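User: Modeling request: complex.
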Amino acid sequence: MIGGFNEEQIRRYSRHIILPEVGGKGQKKLLTSKVLCIGAGGLGSPIIQYLAAAGVGTIGIIDDDTVDLSNLQRQVIHGGNVGKPKAESAKQFVNNLNPDIEVRTYIERLNACNVINIFNEYDIIVDGSDNFATRYLVNDACVITNKPLSHGSIYRFEGQVTTIIPHKGPCYRCLFEHAPPPGMVPSCQEAGVLGVLPGIIGVIQATEVVKYLLGIGELLVGRLVYYDALNMTFEEIKMRWNKNCPICGEQPKITSIQEDIYGDSCRIW
Amino acid sequence: MTIELDLCGEVCPYTFVKTKLKLEEVECGEELIVTFDHAPAVENVPRSLKNEGHKIMGIEQKGEHLWKVRIRKA
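Assistant: Request completed. Predicted assembly structure:
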């Protein structure tokens, strides 16, 4: 036991500890951090894998879906678990990879009723959801609870990723005030998605989370990285705080999480 | 006060990793004496520590395969 690390942890985290920017102090920060991952699907898989490997001490995983054979083309943590709840399957993966990690599973859908209580338990939120209702709910709840948010989304061969630090930079609604009308944008199920695409975007999200927890580097605050896998290009789009933003603007219209904004009932979509 | 750490039986890179972890418990300006029996560590560990700003106050060979490295924490 040296510096609070046991022999196994010294070996497991040695490549982190060697880094001057991390060290034992940084590794301890990771081990005492709590991260909530929304969704254990295409984006959630690499996010959960790398956060667990990095030694993020508590990982919350919320997903109400079960593993389907069609998921395994991109959801690389669910091998052998077809039919199981994704949150449970993800927990099994994490336990095998790193027994240091406490996994909290929520086999339910994130909604206006549970979002605030769940978010309050965590230091940072990572959005790996696949629909606009959840995306806006997560953004708004992060602004209201003042939680940092790593946003990522994917579509066919393209992905986007940004980091939101409420009241210190723009939020998702500053850029896209409202969701497109239902039915206008096809889901991954209808549109298809290249299997490796969420790997790239999810790993960037995990990188941002680790940097935030360690307090190192420059976060993607006010910057949205747009990735095009077919042309293999990364573009950076500047995001500005919108003073008329309905959630983080000077006179916000949304001041609490009301279910009617995100769906007809407490259950979203 | 000088703190000692015995890393006999330990090899690289854990010689550095453990020295670094111990140094994090030491106050700035204090000294740490680390004992190694792994020859490459005698070169590698001081080099890595210097890169992190610490001072190597001396390296003493105590036996054919035994060295003591004295480090002052930056």
